[in-house]
Amino acid sequence: MLAIVATPEGRALTERRELPPPAPAANETLVGVRAFAVNRGELTLIRRRGDGWQPGQDVAGEVLQPAADGTGPQVGERVAGLAEWHGWAEQAVVPSHRLAVVPEGVDLALAAALPMAGTTAANLVREGGPLLGARVLITGASGGVGHIAVQLAALAGAEVTAVASRERGEALRGYGARHVVADAGETEGPFSLVLESVGGKTLDAALARVAPGGTVIIFGNSSREPATLDFVAFFGHEEATIRSYFSARHEAEAGRRLAMLLDLVDQGRLHVEIGFRAGWDDLNEGLAGLDERRFPGKAVLTID
Ligand SMILES: NC(=O)c1ccc[n+]([C@@H]2O[C@H](COP(=O)([O-])OP(=O)(O)OC[C@H]3O[C@@H](n4cnc5c(N)ncnc54)[C@H](OP(=O)(O)O)[C@@H]3O)[C@@H](O)[C@H]2O)c1
């Protein structure tokens, strides 16, 4: 089969090679991949893990071979899932509990955009507890995780403030954000929940706007800049909690979360923004676009 491997030492970040198809473990479903999505974390890992590494977590396609242990969907069913890497390929294995069946009305390219970004957004919003009437700040709101988190928090009844550039902010109002600011420093708060993934000055500003007893969940650092932390900064924000979030700790619920998100998409209650969609020949262009922040939402590549 054909598969993508990292080639950061070469002319382009990745290349397509002929590789042996994967051998599924008993709890894994073999998927014929029709579409896959790219995550910002994978950009970093392609460079860090080096030549020969096989990226790819977000996949959608049809079941070629059900899991031998009898779990998961049957041959021919349309599925999306979160692979343990090696997913940017014609065939990928996915643990059955990380798969969900894609409703008939949902395009596989949309479904492929959801496994990592969507389940992360869903878990983050759920970690925030009851949000009816709560003020929630979401940074990096135009990104893959951010634009879905905005919608899920709004669906949960929160008053959402989204941080995004002016040109990308308007779409977020349409997704349910009550307020959109270009800089976290432009808003006053206080917010009972902050979902933060930009780092640096954005994290500093977010920490200065959390309500007393509120929670800041840090789940990324897209700017790669550090923030400062000082006890005196908590005056006025007493006993706020700062915690981190890692998707790997939530992988057991991935399939269930994904099924919930696909159902919302099918009902027209969740919009998945695909800022870059192309055949997988153009993967390196999509990776460069993500690196240079040329589009909002997700990048999805299709395999014909
Ligand atoms: N902890 C976990 O398990 C987990 C899971 C998924 C993702 N993440 C992390 O969460 C973050 C968001 O993921 P994503 O997939 O939503 O990424 P993404 O699609 O690339 O979105 C990044 C967002 O951050 C904004 N941003 C502001 N300053 C930036 C800068 N200096 N560099 C890059 N982006 C900047 C972007 O705004 P513009 O529209 O202006 O570019 C965009 O809204 C990433 O850091 C990712 O690694 C963590």
What does this structure look like?
The protein has 304 residues and is an alpha/beta fold. The chain has two domains: 2-113 and 272-302, Medium-chain alcohol dehydrogenases, catalytic domain (Quinone Oxidoreductase, Chain A, domain 1, Alpha-Beta Complex), CATH 3.90.180.10; 124-248, NAD(P)-binding Rossmann-like Domain (Rossmann fold, 3-Layer(aba) Sandwich), CATH 3.40.50. 26% of the residues lie in helices and 28% in strands. It contains eight helices and 15 strands. The chain has helices at residues 40-49, 108-112, 115-127, 144-155, 166-174, 200-207, 254-266, 283-291, and strands spanning 2-6, 14-18, 28-38, 58-65, 78-82, 91-95, 99-101, 135-138, 159-163, 179-181, 191-196, 210-218, 241-244, 274-279, 298-302. The strands form three sheets. Strands 3, 4, 5, 6, 7, 14 and 15 form a seven-stranded mixed sheet that branches. Strands 10-9-8-11-12-13 form a six-stranded parallel sheet, sandwiched between helices. Strand 14, helix 8 (283-291) and strand 15 form a beta-alpha-beta unit. The chain binds NADP nicotinamide-adenine-dinucleotide phosphate. NADP nicotinamide-adenine-dinucleotide phosphate binds at residues 39-41, 116-117, 120, 140-146, 164-165, 168, 197-198, 219-223, 245-247, 290, 293, 296.
